Amino acid sequence: MKKRHLLAPGPTQVLPEALLAMARPILYHRGPEYEVLLASVREGLKFLFQTKNEVLLFTSSGTGGMEGAVVNTLSPGDRALVIRGGKFGERWGEICEAYGLQPSYIDVEWGRAVEPDLVAAALTADPSIKAVFTTHSESSTGVLHDIEAIARIVGKTPAILIVDAITSVGVVDLPMDAWGVDVVVGGTQKALMIPPGLALCGVSDKAWAMVQRSRLPKFYFNFIAERKSLEKNQNTFTPAVSLVVALHESLAVIRAEGLTALFARHDRLARATRAGVMALGLQLFTERPTPALTTIIAPPGIEAGAIVKRLRAAHGITISGGQAQLKGKIFRLAHLGYADESDVVVCLAALERTLADLGYPVKLGEGIRAAQEVLVQAC
Ligand SMILES: *Cc1c(COP(=O)(O)O)cnc(C)c1O
């Protein structure tokens, strides 16, 4: 018998209450029970996104929400600025190009956060830019970008700021109304503790004004239609009802924990994990880490893929390796969503054993001890 632990940066472990709720007989999505449920989900999402505006909900993975953000705000020929510093930043560019836009790019070295001044310079150089696209928590590198600083810059211009927050909503503070972030895209399989399949889009008043004028083609991901439906506690098309039911459970748990405690929990798990891996002599990949995951450089002579494989085969733990140019070079331990200190301890214990198996010199317990020293402190 082997117990399995899912500690990859998505999908993540599912909340037991959500699993049980999904096992109940399906609700009719045009019936009164579903309407009551959706009304409560709408309130929960506004709380989570820290906005007074409607948070739109689409049945798709997170990327669908990203595509929706592009096609609902822009028109053919519009200028856009895309910040690329990882696989997900690149995705913004790919979506824009798929719709015939020719964005300008700020290319950031993978592992670094964008310098907000570069955004200011790009907007000054081209005042016709209508939208700035960035990632918040870039899960391919483990970097957390400074959205508050970027929002302050973009907020002074007519452009809107569109943020991929798929791995940061529910992990780290992102008060969209207070900071002036215009579109915030989330997904359910990261911090929301439920399976993949729903995309979430928070939209500011400034962005809604652009949505009214947007002329890029769209059909399924139609923000105006979806808002109109939601205001009647409906979805335009048949939603993934069981995921909405699961989301209702997870939002209840998030509300009960409270945002401050939620962010503090993620921060604490991240600090403990980082302390643990550094005590083993390993190097972190970035100096500006997201609290969602820890990205670690594979030690010399050991391929990151071998660590990932052995953790799974020998210890039942699923983590992620690197993508694209980081393949073989880094590995990623996630600690977001339905995660607590037991996950951190289990993961570090198995990592110590794995490294020892692969011939890396470790003293068993050294990583755990450093993590425990963080965990015993009050948060
Ligand atoms: C997971 C993730 C996505 C979305 O991926 P999907 O597979 O479409 O859900 C996008 N951006 C970031 C930063 C992510 O971590």
From TrEMBL:
Q: Which Pfam families match?
A: Aminotran_5
**Residues recorded with modification N6-(pyridoxal phosphate)lysine:** K190
Q: Which cofactors are reported in the record for this sequence?
A: pyridoxal 5'-phosphate
- Single GO MF annotation: L-serine-pyruvate transaminase activity
Q: Mind telling me which Gene3D superfamilies this protein's record contains?
A: Aspartate Aminotransferase, domain 1 (3.90.1150.10), Type I PLP-dependent aspartate aminotransferase-like (Major domain) (3.40.640.10)
Task: Pinpoint the Aminotransferase class V domain residues.
Answer: 28-324
Residues reported to bind substrate: R332
InterPro entries named in the record: Aminotrans_V_dom (IPR000192), PyrdxlP-dep_Trfase (IPR015424), PyrdxlP-dep_Trfase_major (IPR015421), PyrdxlP-dep_Trfase_small (IPR015422), SP_NH2Trfase/AEP_transaminase (IPR024169)
List UniProt keywords, sorted A-Z.
Aminotransferase, Pyridoxal phosphate, Transferase
Gene Ontology biological process terms, A to Z: glycine biosynthetic process, by transamination of glyoxylate
The family assignment reads: Belongs to the class-V pyridoxal-phosphate-dependent aminotransferase family.
Question: What protein am I looking at?
Answer: Aminotransferase
